[in-house]
Amino acid sequence: MTLQESLLGFAAIAALITVLPGTDTALVLRYTLSQGRRHAYTAALGMITGAFVWGAAAATGVSALLTVSEVAYDILRIAGALYMLWLAVGLWRASFAKHDGALPPGALPHHSLEPLKRTWAKGFISNILNPKYGMFCIAVIPQFLVPGVPSVWMGLLLSVVANVEAIIWFIAIVAAAQFFGRWLNGGTFRKWIDRVTGTALGAFGVVAILETRHA
C-alpha cells in the first residue's frame, strides 16, 4: 500500500464515521442555534482537540492499554455516559428557563452567552470521554500504516486527515443551521432544540451504560 492509497482509503472510512449522527453533531447544532456561530466553532474546536488526542494516543500505543484492560475501558465509558447525561439534564433545565422574545439566530442577550472556555471544555470532554472513537483509532489506524513510514508519524498524519474532514463537516452543519435558522427563530424553537439535543445526549448516555452492563 502506497502513502497515497493509505490516505485515500482512511479518508473514505473516516468520512463515514464523521457524518454519522452523534453527540458532536448534536452539540454543534445546538450551539449554532442557541448561542451563535462563534460558540459552535469553539465547541467544534474542543471536539477536534479531543479527537486529535485520541489519534495521537492510538498512534503512540498509549490508548492500546484500553484494549487490554477491560476495567479501564468500562470506567472511561461510564464516565463518558455520565457526562452526556449531565449535559442532557442541563439542556432540559435550560429549556424551561425564561428567554427573551424572538431574536435573530444566536443573538441571545450577552448575559445568556456561555463563556467560550466552558464551551471549548464541553466539546473537548465530550470527545475525550468517548472510548468508541479511541477504539476506532486503535482498530483502523494500524490497517493503513505504510511500510517505511514511522508508525507514530503515520498515525498522526491519519489523525490529521480525520480532523480536517471533521472541520469541513462542522462548517457545513453551522452554515446549514444558520441558513434554516432564519425560519426557525424565537424562544420556542430554542427550547425545543435544547430538549431534542438533551434527549439525544441522554439516549447516548443510557445506551453506553447498558452496553457496559451487558459487556
UniProtKB/TrEMBL annotation:
It comes from the Bacteria. The chain crosses the membrane at residues 6-29, 41-65, 71-92, 160-180. Keywords: Cell membrane, Membrane, Transmembrane, Transmembrane helix. This is Threonine transporter RhtB. Its main location: membrane. It is a multi-pass membrane protein. It is found in: Cell membrane. The keyword Membrane applies.
